[in-house]
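User: I'm writing a short methods note and want a consistent example. For Cytochrome c oxidase assembly protein, I'll paste the sequence; you return only the structure tokens, no commentary, since I'll be parsing the reply automatically.
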Amino acid sequence: MTRRAIVAGTAALGLLAAAVAVVVRGPVGYPELGLPDPGVVTRVLVPLLRTVVDLAAAGTIGGLLVALVVATPAAGTGAFGDTGRRALGVARWTAWTGAGAAALSVPATLADSTGGRLPSGPDLVTVMLARGEPVSWLLAAVLGVVTAVAAGEVRRWSGGAGVLAVAVAALLVPVATGHAADGVGHDLALPATAAHVVAAAVWTGTLGVLALVGGDARARWRAARIGTAAGVVTIASGTLAAVVAVTGPGGPAAGLDWTVLVLLTAALGVVAGGALWRRRTGRAAWPVELAVLAVVTGLSAVATRAVPPVQAPGAATTPTAVLGYGLAAAPTPEVLATSWRPELAALTPAVLLAALYAGGLRRLAREGARWPLGRSAAWFAGCALLVVATSSGLGRYGPAVLSVHIAGHMLVATAVPLLWVLGAPVVLARRTLPEAPPGGPEGPAEWLEHLLAAPTLRWASHPVVALALVVGSPALLYLTPVFALTQPLGWLQPLMTLWLLLVGVLFLGPLVAGPPDGPGLPHLARLTFLLASMPVHALVGLALLAADHPVSRTPVLPADGGSGQIFVDDFFVRLRLPWAPDLLADQHLAGVLTWLLGDLPLLAAVLAVLVAWSRRTRTEHADVLLGLGSR
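Assistant:
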């Protein structure tokens, strides 16, 4: 049997497992959700389509990773080799397949929530917006088409990395409207589920694509290493998401159907891990490993239609249903300092970046080289501050109190990027990452250079563009209805945090540390851009102080039309917190914090540029005097 036949057979096995599981379990879960049974055809079709989407996404992500990392181009060429081009072809084909299945999932999920009959006219839009899931599938289909087209056109490493980011986004969009986004602990379950889904796709996809396109011993070794890391993340994140999901008042018995499916997939995951270990040690067992992973994918798709214990009736009060956790006390300084709750979307990269930096320092120490202590202190302080801003009481109370939200966001947007820039991570990476031998396969050092040279990154880090982003982001968020409209969408909050962090790094990096590959702008121009960014925080702060109504209010038109009357809804009032502060007074405090916490780090950045300018001037004068004295 050919490798292509084996891969196709494992995919068919995953689809068969999903169909059998649906038929065996019957119309379980619909009564708990208050939905009519849509019929066996719809009940089977929805998880089947999701299985196709997930397997196709694994093929797309795996194909891109094989081209970028596993069968990487030879150093100095930047172009993909034969294996990489074949892997990109697989990625393109699977992306089209996944986009088609996602598009078909739109009417399938609509029928699933309406008793098997598709709504029409205005009811169609109402149901789509109310359920959310069909909208997510529509967006996933669009991103899948973009991925498929781009995968067919990409020729360089940096372009492939961008396509990979779009493919991951397409995979994660439906997760935002799944079980992990609701119920007690969804602030932990959602990022854990996202990591689980991506890691499982990496594990399955790299194995399946490499089996299709082939590869030398080095490619198989790299694929096994990637599979091992992805397997560890898959198991760890899946365990965390499952633990959160069984925290309902009735325990696992409250969602027995879901619990059985999860335990079965966990057992199969252990079998797949054993096969992965055999593959890593050189004893080929990849067909068994791939078949088990395909079955797990099918059963996981079925589990998305079950009701986890945490969503059982009565499992959550209003605050815990909206935020994922309770807030019993008012946010006093003592409470903010002691009420810690991990924000995985920020905590994970903070820990990883600190560990990578420490690894670079260790390598320098082994070589006997020195590294400025101030740079190390700045980097680790930035990582620690990111954790404090997102996982301490600032992060826990931020979604419920505007002033706390502003404080955390301003630290993430300005203070953390400044500390990271002062840490000079690119300089450290260039000194410590081993370079590929001439003609050998590219490694991390070359990948870093490709990333730094990517046109998109160069465009976004241009001072004019970065200034527009750093000025426009807070103004758009707090001076328009965007804040009120997005605040109820809990999954958007970590994305906003990461966006502000990225924009801050793109803006302050070239101005404070300079571009990684040249002298960059004159110091006077750097000061001009820094000073030009400072008024935005003052303007936003003054606008919050001058507003006569809370910015968390938004007009809402009732579903029945309300005879044309538009009601005003407030997110913070909806939380029904017994200690809720006066919204306008808290908003005024938020305005002051915007001004102070936004501009103080920028003032520190101005001082850093002035110090660097002064040192460079003294060095130039010393060089001139030395030249005159040598005559």
